[in-house]
Amino acid sequence: MTRSIRWRLVAAGAFAIAVALALSGMGLAVLFERHVERVAVADLQARALALAAMVQPNGDAGASLRAPPDDPLYDQPFSGHYWQVMLGDELRRSRSLWDYTLPTAQAPPPGESAVRALAGPQGEPLLAVEQGLLVGQGRGAVPLRIIVASDRDELALARRGFLGDLLPYLGLLGAALLLASWLQITVGLEPLQQVGARVAALGSGARPRIGQDLPTEVIPLATEIDKLLDARDRELDRARHRAANLAHGFKTPLQALLGDAARLSGRGEAEIARSVEAIANQMRRHVDRELARARIQSGRARQSAEPGTITAKLVGVLRRTPQGAGIDWQIAIPPGLYARIDPDDLTEALGALLENAMRHAGRSVHVSARAQGGRVLIAIRDDGPGVPEADLQRLTQRGLSLDPDGEGQGIGLAVVADIVDAAHGELRLANAQPGFLAELHLDAAPPVAPGAPPSPFPKYS
């Protein structure tokens, strides 16, 4: 999972969302607390001004404090709501303070208020507002200090209630954001999946190249892969040409060596001639095999071939030979069946198998093909004597020929195996009892579009 880009992005997104929601929750809690405190201060200021009505002017005798207004909130001892009024030296307290006097500091200027943090009668923290006023005028004016306070635990309780209501919504928001992040990542990584699908199509031969019709960000990757494929094809072509040139270069010296062996035999050097001829024939088999391998178009597996058409052409050629004219050729291949292989390669492989079946058949050769689970199965069966079970596993070895007449060079089935392997297929050989059965298992290909130019078939004779 640690190597998955998707899960790494999801994990990073989930971490970022969690941090953002945590910071948002903390910020909202702070803002809510400040807002509640401002509301509480405004309420305390209003209550302080209401308590100013306790002042009773007495003319030249100054002023005095009358009885406070009835308010059950301030009558219960230690209720958490308190007030204290000081007019000059006269002090009045709410019943809730019992015998406790709120601590005082420097009084605010007359007409102004100050927010203070005080200790309550039981040591609890209080939010207090002190209002400064002046009763009377001139020298006879008397200072008035009004303190109204409430327990801060009520603010903390409101804050906890707000967070309790907020957390479920933050959880739902986090889940929605995580889902949106997953969808965003899925959409963002879709081009990479598209590139992966096209690379898989390259392997199966469904596409020649990845192409440029992709999102801008992945075009450089697709371009580099296509360049590598072009370089690989060029290198394969060069290697195939070098192998063909080398094999052709050996053919003339080998032919001359066989001629020298014939002259040695004419001079009575039969043993030396046979040794030279055996070595030359073995080398010629190697050369013929390399020539056949050089013709395999492994870089063109994206092409498709129709087994029915190719088989009909090859059987038509074999019927014109003396041995093929006496064979009953039975072909059962439905039209419209295509295999993912180069037509030239399929012609080479079927030609070798059909010629092999013709040489060993008694009276008939049966050729069939069918689609099976995304593959095309081509079967060639003759009614000949078959092959000893001990030799079945060795038939595709180069240089092995089981032809009793000695006409085969032992490279036909080996070349067929190379062709099928290059097309990512499989060659299966078995005794049919009676006869011999050769099966080609190749990937299926879509039918050729109407109007498409037919692939050229090499001449087979």
Would you write up a description of this structure?
The protein has about 450 residues and is an alpha+beta fold. Helices cover about 50% and strands about 20% of the residues. It has three domains: about 5-155; about 205-295; about 300-460, Heat Shock Protein 90, CATH 3.30.565. It has helices at about 5-50, 70-75, 155-205, 220-265, 270-295, 305-320, 320-325, 345-360, 410-420, and strands spanning about 55, 65, 80-85, 90-95, 115-120, 125-135, 140-150, 330, 365-370, 375-380, 425-430, 435-445. A hairpin with a 6-residue loop joins strand 6 (about 125-135) and strand 7 (about 140-150). The longest helix is centred in the middle third of the chain and has 52 residues, at about 155-205.
Summary, kept brief:
The chain is of the alpha+beta class and 461 residues long. The protein has helices spanning 5-51, 72-75, 153-204, 219-266, 270-295, 307-318, 322-325, 343-360, 412-422; strands at 55-57, 63-65, 81-87, 90-93, 113-119, 125-135, 142-151, 328-332, 364-372, 375-382, 426-431, 436-443. It folds into three domains: 5-157; 205-295; 300-461, Heat Shock Protein 90 (2-Layer Sandwich).
